[in-house]
Amino acid sequence: MEKKSNRVLSAIESVCYKFRYLFLILYVALMVIVPFLDIKLVHAQVIILIGVYAMLGMGLNVLIGYTGLVSLGHAGFYAIGAYTCALLETKLGVNFWLALVASGVLTAFIGFLLGLPSLRLSGSYLSIVTLGFCEIVTMILKQWESVTNGNYGVRNIKQPVFFGIKLDMYNGGLIVLMLVLCLIVGVASLAIRNSNAGRAFRAIKDDELAANMMGIHVSRYKIMSFVISAFITGIAGGFYCVTRNYIEPGSFNFDVSILILSVVIIGGLGTIRGMVFGAAILQLFPQVFRFLDEWRYVVYGLLLIVMMRFRPQGLLGWQSTQPYHLSKKTKQILEADGGTSEPLEAAGKTEGGSEQ
Amino acid sequence: MSAFVGSVINGIALGMAYALIAVGYSLVFGILRLINFAHGSIYAFGAYMVFLFVTLKLGFLPAIIVSVILSGLLAFLMDKVTLEPLRKKGSDTIAYLITTVGVSFVITNVLSLEAVFGSQRRLFPSTNLFGSIRIGNLTIQSSQIIMFVAALILMLIMTYVVNKTKMGLSMRAVEQNGRAARLVGVNVNRVISFTFFLGGASAAIAGALINGYYQSISPTMGTTIGLKAFAAAVVGGIGVLHGSVVGGLVVGVGECIAAQYLGSNVRDPMAFVILIIILIIKPNGLFGKKGITKV
Amino acid sequence: MSGFLEVSHIKMQFGGLAAVDDVTMHVDKGEIVSLIGPNGAGKTTVFNMLTGVYNITSGEMSFEGQDLKSMIPQDIVKIGISRTFQNLRLFPKMRVIENVLVGTHVRTKYNFWDSLLRTPRFRREEAEHTARVIQILRSIGMDGMRNSFVNSLPYGDQRKVEIARAIATDAKLILLDEPAAGMNPAESEELLRFIRELRDKGYTILLIEHDMSVVMNISDRIYVLDHGKLIAEGLPQEIANNPKVIEAYLGGEQKNVKNN
């Protein structure tokens, strides 16, 4: 049963891989079309939230999916990103684009600080510290009234302006911005994954000691993945704040951390496709299951339990059956060596071991 | 000055009750290396069961006893139905974690159903049975004294169970080395079940004591208090019972002083401020055993 | 003198137990040297000391004149010592080719921004490393599996991947911890041939082996360890006839101590 579903998924994967440039073109085309579509406000809000949570998922994915560090406090980073952007805009009148970058940078710096204890604490203890970090962030937001307006939150956040065009919910501008940001974050995540640093992250996740013995500076890479994860989450927060008129400390509590975590887990740990899918499912779930009324969250809980039992790798998480991508340069080197770049079977050996 | 002494006394009473919840986290974490996020919801369940049976005119003490048994059973069932299959499969830690989050969602939201108790706050029977004592301009309510004394007695019983009984010995064996314990004939699954039962039962008592003092309950109250109690367990050192007591007291007193002088926003996060400071100084908590890393 | 690998009087104390006691040995460039002994003799401990897993209690170790004692594992890999593990420590959720690419980590010069922006420097270096890794996989007969995930491979193949990963670090000295364990006779025969080839290409090998017969015809020299102490050293022939070694092995069978 499970094997069969995997075969179907990998068939879909190979089709997607074949037409990946087509999908990219369609994606870009979508950005162009969106402003001309007449999207209702309620729908626009859901679409934007899917994008925000896809980005949040991608941010947390760097930490959990790549490096294997479980954060239960990503709402804290999310809050820092959102508040930085909102406060810079409303209090200092900083331009949105600058404020967005500042959100990412400041959140990344906080990520660096939170990464420091990760060197001394292992596994679950680190998760607890991140959980506490989020509680403390919301406390500071409530308490530091002179800057954050405390429980009242930040109001009247202005929408971004792009070359004289105001991007808002009605003209589809915010959706286009969301699509652009998701694309950048997604492509960057993939670029990181398929590089020296990405391999180091995944090696640490699989076997920390072996990674250490292969010359990987484990502590440096752990902090680095905290920084990258926080940066992405901060950007998502900065974007989120301009899609709302106001933000308040209560929007960034433990439940939000768990929601971000659920996106990553349900979508498929370590994958980008999974983040988008997970975000879509979790944002649409309350809408689609509106008829369940107050039973919705009981069902949600049950789904989490069932899923962990029968498909813990996430709905779209599976080991790729596509061959490892060799760059043109690699092939050139191999072929110049008088050979082929195709995998060579050893003499007298047959394909052994089945893919999982 | 009396405000300070008042918040310390308040903190000590609350802290002892936190210790009762913390024990559940501590024992489970010690054995399974798992943060049981459903524990807070079991605490809420326990409080609601007391509320239910008191409303059914069962009397306060019998209501507590029934609630303790039901909560213990709920915790036990949760492990049997949701966690044991994962252990058989050898799942990743994160699968356990999300499962307990799922269980917590289910329990909390079933409690909030209109047909069950509803999501609004309810009045909880007071445990302020003997009025209050006045010393100078300091008032100590009898509910606080009851909370402290009852929690203390229970912690002593629990210490006895863990240190002196055969089941306690098995628990410690499984905590230190599950595989070795199994090899010498300890029934690991039974130990785990017992641990969950014990944790659920003590959380229910804490639910009666704490809410008897605050006199109000809501289905979602378990989350915050659960996180605080977990912080207390880690501050004291996981797997150490007296650690839970000290952790509970530190967190309880810390939050009451913080609430008194810095405002109510600081009350709940204080537990985590303390937690992070302690973990940075002592990565295994105040009384935690030193972790052994194997190569 | 400062030779290739020089180890003198090293000691590793765990509490009251000396797992390795006063071991002195050396490995010259281009040699295949074996470290043998019964289970629990302290062979793996010596590897852990050489590669910086443990801080040694006393003694001196140096590699090409550089003091190993104060080095962290990362630096030891950088100066050219790499190892495999007795109980396989691969990265199970990564592909074979990615596992071996992790070996090139210490030789990678491009930085994070290069990889994010896919600069020419990134592309060139990544291509060179990947091509080299594929060549290593070919030489050990594992190229056909390069796309597989390690957790789907049979045990013997996983051992080969681990050796390939050690080679990919550009090590001059490769420490192999029971490389033939879990292989069938034909596979281990093939492996021994591969180890010889490595030596011919200029690598130096230090080999741990439990089974004496395996190492007899491959080693240039052999050290024998028992209960943490060096009890014999010499050419294979000398070791085979050494009464102390024979006693250690027969005695070792009866005691059957296992702590590594």
Low-confidence stretches of chain A: 348-356
Largest interface: A-C, 48 and 56 residues
Helix content of chain B: over 70%
Q: Work out the helix count of chain A.
A: 15
Report mean pLDDT of chain A, rounded to a whole number: 87
Global outline of chain A: globular
User: What CATH architecture of chain B do you see?
Assistant: Orthogonal Bundle
CATH class of chain B: Mainly Alpha
* Low-confidence regions of chain B: 291-295
Instruction: Please give the largest β-sheet of chain A.
Output: 2 strands, antiparallel
Structure description:
The complex is a heterotrimer of chains A (356), B (295) and C (260). Helix content of chain A is 67%, strand content 1%. Chain A has 15 helices and two strands. A two-stranded antiparallel sheet of chain A has the order 1-2. Chain A starts with a helix and ends in a 20-residue tail after the last helix. Chain B has a single domain, classed as Orthogonal Bundle (ABC transporter involved in vitamin B12 uptake, BtuC), CATH 1.10.3470. Chain B contains eleven helices and four strands; from the N terminus they run ααααβββααααβααα. The longest helix of chain B has 31 residues, at 2-32. Chain B is globular. Chain B starts with a helix and ends in a 14-residue tail after the last helix. Chain C has two domains: 1-80 and 171-260, Rossmann fold (3-Layer(aba) Sandwich); 87-170, 3-Layer(aba) Sandwich (Rossmann fold). Chain C has helices at 43-50, 73-78, 96-103, 112-117, 120-139, 155-168, 185-200, 212-216, 236-240, 243-255; strands spanning 5-14, 17-27, 32-36, 58-63, 66-67, 81-83, 173-177, 204-209, 221-226, 229-234. A six-stranded mixed β-sheet of chain C has the order 6-7-8-3-9-10, with helices on both faces. A four-stranded antiparallel β-sheet of chain C has the order 2-1-4-5, with helices on one face. In chain C, helix 5 packs across helix 6. Chain C is globular. The model of chain C is unreliable at 252-260 (pLDDT under 50). Chains in contact: A-B, A-C. Chains A and B meet through helix 6, helix 12 and helix 14 of A and helix 3, helix 4, helix 9 and helix 11 of B.
